[in-house]
Amino acid sequence: MEQILELLTGLGFSALVVVILLLGVLSSAIKIVQEYERGVIFRLGRLVGAKGPGLFFIIPMVDRMAKVDLRVVTLEIPSQEAITKDNVTVKVNAVAFFRVVDPSAAIVQVEDFRKATWQIAQTTLRSVLGQSSLDELLTHRETINEKLQKIIDQQTEPWGIKVSIVEVKDVELPETMKRAMAKQAEAEREKRAKIIHAEGEVAASRNLRDAAGTMAQEPAAIQLRYLQTLTEIAVEKNSTIIFPVPIEFIQAFAKMFGQKESE
Question: What CA dihedral angle connects 135, 139, 142 and 147, to 10 degrees?
Fold first, then answer.
């Protein structure tokens, strides 16, 4: 009787071990990937393809799966020191946005697609900076961003990577260049101020010429101007006293003095 109990106990333990092994095999055969992921399957070292999202099965001990995230990745490009086309040393950092469009190529064609894209972005940024002038970098940044995006996207396309946006974040200039640019901006503002002042003087002289011509045609206009000036002064409530002297009176004295000098 005792031998039978020992046999049953041994069989139960063996069955328990078998059940545990079966559960382990099933758990390794069942794979679940999220909506934003894909599972790249390799069977005995050969590429089968990408599966997912959801639940699927693989052959334990035969298949191997590598997960690939399909979401957009934000890649920080550290500051790169370069010399521009016009021999100015600058430090520029940028940011790139990319995502995986071909999971199989991202796993098979390159060892680490994130690191590879990061290195390509750095070298491309230095190359484009060397081909651009400082004015282009400061005023035509959108053109440089498009050029960076196009070059990086072409180089990473065989890896199943799509680079959608590349943006230059900050441009760091030497202090001497900052002072020179500040002086240039100040000179430009002074130039515009002088031009505007000269244009105002020209317009004022033209208006005065037209006003003088009108008053010469209508002698009473100058008397009205006298009265208007007196009205403006009286509004301010000051103690200034003005005696308007007609021009004809002064002209009469001028003629008398001129006759005496001629005599």
Answer: -10
Q: Can you tell me the distance from the alpha carbon of 64 to that of 192, in angstroms, rounded to the nearest whole number?
A: 71
What is Dmax (Cα atoms) for the chain?
Answer: 170
How many angstroms separate the CA atoms of 57 and 182, rounded? 67
Whether residue 53 has a cis bond before it, omega within 30° of 0: yes
In DSSP terms, 248 is beta-bridged to none
- Strand residue runs (E) in 84-188: 89-100, 161-172
Mean pLDDT by 10 residues, the chain (263 residues): 51 61 68 90 90 86 90 91 86 93 93 92 91 86 92 94 92 78 79 87 82 71 70 65 62 64 56
Phi, psi dihedrals of residue 124, rounded to the nearest 5° = -65, -40
Which residue has tokens 């190529």? 105
Say how far apart CA 80 and CA 88 lie, in whole Å.
13
- For residue 198, give the amino acid letter: A
Q: In what order do the strands lie in the sheet with 73-83?
A: 73-83, 89-100, 161-172
Q: Which residues of 116-125 are buried (b: 16+ CB within 10 A; e: fewer)?
A: bbbebbeebb
**Residue owning tokens 């409530």:** 237
Q: What type of residue is 248?
A: E
Helices (H), 79-174: 103-108, 113-130, 134-139, 141-156
